[in-house]
Write a structure and sequence with these properties.
Length: 336
Amino acid sequence: MRIVPITELRPGMVLGRTILGGGGQILLRRGVTLTAGYINFLQKYPLSAVYISSGTDVVAEDVISDETRLAAIQGTREMLNQVKRGAGLAVQKANELLLKVIDELLLQDEIVINLVDLRSFDEDLFHHSVNVAILSLVLGIENKYGQQKLKRLAQAALLHDIGRLFSEDENIYSHVNLGVDFLRQSGISPSVLRAILHHHERWDGAGFPNRLRGEEIDELARAIQVANAFDKLSANNRYPMEEVIEYLMAESGRELEPLSVRNFLRCVSFYPVGTMVELNTKERGVVIKANKGFPTRPVVRIERDMFGKRAEPGYTVNLLERPTYFVKRKLEAGMD
C-alpha cells in the first residue's frame, strides 16, 4: 500500500482505504478500482492524496476500526446538530460512542499512529472532535491512565470545542467559556469541565482564559492540547509528518507539557505506513511497519536496489536492527 498524491492517480489503481465525506458518508470503498470518472470525482474534494493498494502490501490500519470511527463521527454529528438546534446534550449517547473507542484501543498490545489522516473535506467540528478524542486516548493509554480517567479524558476531548456551536464569529477566546457554560448546565462533571476550560492554556503561561502555567493546567487538558495540535497540523497531510513532529518538539516546554509531548511521540511514526522512502544505501522502498518509540526507524520493504533494479520480492529492512541504515528522504510522488 502506498500514499499516492491525487495528481498522480491513474485508472486501474486500486483504492487502499475507504474515503469518507464530510458528513461521515462513504464516498468510495476500499478495494474499488479507480476509473477516470472516479478520479475526476475525487479531484472535486480537497484531498491531497489517497492510499493505493499494490496487491501484496500490508494494509495501513487505523488505531481503531473503520466501523467504529464511522459510527463515532456520525454519532457526534447527530449529537452536536441536536445541540445546535437547541436540544440538550445527549450525554449518554456520547458516553456510548466513547466506550466503544476505549474498548478497541485497550485491546491492542501496542498502539502506533502510522496512518496519514487523508480527508476529503476541510476541517469540520465533527471529525476534529472525534480525532482529538482518539488521539487523546492514545496518549492517555501511554500515560497508564485507568479506565475511569480515560473516560473523563475522552469526554473532555470530544466536547472540547463545543463552544464553537455558540460562537458565530469563530472567536477563539469566547468559545471556551461558552462551551463550559453550556456543559455545566448539561450536568457534565467538574473534572471534565476543568479540562475543557484549560485546553487553550499554555505550559509557559501565555495561554487563555486564565494564563495558567505548568502544572496549574489540568492534567487531562495537557493531553488534549497535544492531540489538538497534532490533529490540526496533520489532517489531510497539511504538513509532512516530520514537520508536525518537529513542531511538537519545538513547542515542548512552551505551548505544551514536555512529558505529554514525549509520551505522545512514542506513539507516532515519522514515516507512516505507505510512505515511499530512499535509504542512505540508495535502496528505495515503502514503509510497511512502524517501530514504537523509534519514529525514524521503520521497517521498509525494498523495491529498488542501489542500482535502481527491481529488488527480490519480500526483501525488507528493519532500520531498528540496522544501525548504519537510515531514511535519506521521502519520495513524494512515488518511484520510477
